[in-house]
Amino acid sequence: MRFKLIILAIFLRLLVALFLFHPDIKTIAFQTSFLKQGVVNIYSYLSENKQHLPLKEEFVYFPLTYFVIGGYQAVISSVLGDAFNNWLYDAGTVSTPNNPNIFIYLIFLKLPLLLMDLFIAFLLPQFFRKEADRKKVFNLWLFNPFTIILIYAFSNIDLYVVLLTIIALLYIKKEKIIKAVFFIGFAASFKLYPLLFVPFFFLKAKNVKEKILTVMIPTLIFVLTIIPFFSTSFINSALISGLSTRIFNPSFMIGFGESIMIGLFLLSSLFFYGLVINKKTTIFNYVIIVLFILFSFSHYHISWLLWIAPLLVVLAIKKPSCKWIIFIWALFSILIPLFYQDRSMTYSLYRIYTSWFDLLPIPFTIVEKFYDPYAIQSMIHSLLAGLSTIIGYKLLIKK
Amino acid sequence: MIKFTIISIIFILFIIPTLLASQIKMIPAHDQPGYGDMGRVPIYSIHEFKQYFISKDRNLVAIGTTIKNPNLKNEKEIKFNLFDGNNNLMRSVTQNGFNIGDGDFVKFIFEVIPDSVGKEYYFTLSSSSAEEEEILELFLTRPTDWILRYSYNEEIKEGGTPMVTFHKPNSRLETVKLVYSNLFSKLLHLNSDNK
Predict the structure, then answer these.
(1) A148/B5 CB distance under 8 A
(2) Which of A42, A153, B55, B157 is the most exposed place for a label (fewest CB within 10 A)?
(3) Rounded to whole angstroms, what are the CA distances from A3 to A8, A10, A137, A183?
(4) DSSP of A243-277, one letter per residue?
(5) Contact with chain A for residue B188, Cβ under 8 A
(6) Cβ atoms A204, A177 nearer than 8 A
(7) pLDDT-wise least confident of A142-146, A188-192, A217-221, B185-189
(8) pTM of this prediction?
(9) Residues A63/A192, Cβ–Cβ less than 8 Å
(10) If you ran DSSP here, which 8-state letter would residue B134 be given?
(11) Considering only CA atoms, which of A297, A272, A300, A296 is closest in space to residue A286?
(12) Closest CA to A167 of A180, A178, A158, A177
């Protein structure tokens, strides 16, 4: 039975991987393709050669991403041949999805995602003792449309970070905090956000030595992986892009040029709550709450939702009374980006079917005819923040 | 949850594209050619652009091309006139430069011309009330099997603006069939001509 379920799960995943195409996967594949040509510092290479390259975007990820994805690509390029490289260099919005080999390319590019996705399915049951719960979480991870679409339509890098974070949390469960922070360090070397969890690992460390190590190890790993590439182009394209700045954006003025950053304010409140008031909350719960704060107070990319997805799957099994509220949270969180003024969030995903869908107005434009689409986004986002508060409250206040 | 997932995936992969395809009101006959390196021509005052082309399909309903509106200065009327091979005015559309961004793909939509397949037409594009500082610009590209020649300042040259003709589909069902036949023909030609 389990084998049949896995086959069915893989089949559904392959269908989505084949038919839905987000241009980011090709952009990253193009940028990381320079590794096999011997380019080590992608940041300076792209900024120096922008004029001659068909795709002008900067590489916004950290060096470890470049080496891991670039290394994998060096392997698959030998199988896929020159046609694959030609496709990577093709900047045409119509010709790229119309390439008859696109299905093969997408399968190869998304294959690591499939392997990690299945690996996560086998890891999540380790959060439970009861066999029934282990089965439930395995099935819920494999069979929910949210993660399948997030991973195979939108995701690129995020799943690497998610996998490493889950391994870290499993080590925490086994009370091996030092091993856990090693994984957090490597996760942060792909994307910065796991560093936000470090203060809560610090809270759970048993003695001074362990506390110092929980901060030192992930910070050192992160610093060591970025320091050889530290330059203006790296700072501009990777370090101060995306989340690292977005989470500090929402704020309110308190006068004389000063403001309170809501995200940072809530994160610090959570930390000091754990330090002073409630010392029993688990790191797993803290991590979920940190992510709730992040999603409630930042304009997020849809693929970021993967960061919290496996944790919510685990939570839905741990707290069955919360499963409907988690389901609604998932619906709202996916709905918000669909109203962004960004075609690649909706119809452009179907470019393999046809480019004619480009002639249709996106949800943002349709809504604009009747009402302010930003107001709708804001309303749903506020509802999401409300839901996050309630789930977060339930996690903190344990009776 | 397994059933819900299967139904959701089928809905996303097959029902949504079907619904989207059924909403398409016009289909481009071809992809837009690249802008090439043939420069640009300004349109203003008496400087009118005339483009000769062949309609590759029936039910011609719109013509689109990329127009530059440098610094968004043109806020004047833009007149589009479509003529048949016998110089008969077929359709006329007026737009305002105010609605055209710099480098926008602009569609001139008109009442459908049913028997347009394989016929030669020409259109003129002018902004007669615009001054020299309120120019609109058209990119130029080499001739294709539908872009024949253009006339500007009484000079006729091969090629023209990278235009696309749009055609009204016969039925929603036909559009849906076209979308899926395109998808599955691509799927069946895996690893064919590009490798």
Answers:
(1) yes
(2) B157
(3) 9, 11, 16, 30
(4) HHHHTT--EEEEETTEEEEHHHHHHHHHHHIIIII
(5) no
(6) yes
(7) B185-189
(8) 0.86
(9) no
(10) G
(11) A272
(12) A180
